[in-house]
Amino acid sequence: MGPPTPAPAPARARRFGRPREGQSQSSPNLYVANCGPAVGLSYETIASVFGAFGEVKAVNPADESGVRVVVSFAEEGCARTALATLQGRPCPQLGGRCLHIRYSQLQLQPQPLSLGHPPPLSVVALMASELNISGLYLLHDFVSVEQEQALITAVDQRPWNNLSKRRVQHYGYEFCYATRNVNPKQKLGELPSFVLPVLNKLSMFAKLDITADIDLDQLTVNEYPPGVGLSPHIDTHSAFEGLIFSLSLAGPCIMEFRRYADGDWSAKASLGSDMKIESPEHNSNFIRKSIHLPPRSMLLLSGEARYGWHHYIPHHKIDVVNDTVIRRGTRRVSFTFRKVRTAPCKCDFPQYCDSQR
């Protein structure tokens, strides 16, 4: 039997639950791990290989990883044969990959979708202006390759503090993750001299009609290993003033911004960056927008972007930026510059403000 001609799928997959351990209930839908665009396998190629077992109605992403898909057959018997044949065995037609397959149950919402054009997981912006979030700015190539290396060398010569999944350094003031705040009476000292070239260059942002103070006095350096991200949060209003600068070094990532519909930041997304919260697939009560942060770029959060949107780095080793698969690399190092607040926050976003709640 030859491979099928891709046909329009009758519905778009809204969510695929990861199969439970030991699940055996038969289904025309197969959850296939170690398979997807992030490992160089197109949806058309996957449909062609599984089409040898019967009519394939659709191939959809199972989640945002790019390495797990759900193959939907027209009949359960075709899915049963494919599972028995391919489960746990190398597949020569898919680059010799050993597939991990289970039955899957779909939840569907009516929306026509062509198998040849699977839905984008999300549109990832390359420029801040594409997100239409007031107060968000991104400058590419803010530092040179040589400056990038000098900054990384400088922090690597200093001691790191270990968190559960990443390493950090604090300068000026220490950020306490347990309280998500700083003690303005406990100053560690001035910011290190190796960041002075970066601070001097921040005057470039003065052209963006920003009235807040750029006299920054706190720096947190984060080192992210592959696959480690940052849970959704808003930097505590009472801790820092209105400008937050984040310099990305060594590796790229995607940063997602979320605006919760009911403003319930304390219950839903204000947990510390190393605490477990709900996954995006299990909560739809927010607007989400994503941007790609390349190495050596400087991101500025001000105004609404700083006070009213949660920011989040997905815990992925591979990012799918529109049609391009980007591997994060061996490490990503970020320099986050802020100014410690010494009086209560009086911003225009009281629903997110701990000083006004």
TrEMBL record:
RRM domain location: 28-106
Gene Ontology terms: biological process: demethylation
Name under which the protein is recorded: Splicing factor-like protein
Molecular-function annotations in GO: demethylase activity; oxidoreductase activity; RNA binding
Keywords in alphabetical order: RNA-binding
InterPro entries listed in its UniProt record: AlkB-like, AlkB-like_sf, ALKBH4, Nucleotide-bd_a/b_plait_sf, Oxoglu/Fe-dep_dioxygenase_dom, RBD_domain_sf, RRM_dom
Record family assignment: Belongs to the alkB family.
Signal peptide range in chain numbering: none
Domain Fe2OG dioxygenase, first and last residues per copy: 215-341
Provenance organism: Parasponia andersonii (Sponia andersonii)
Region (Disordered): 1-29
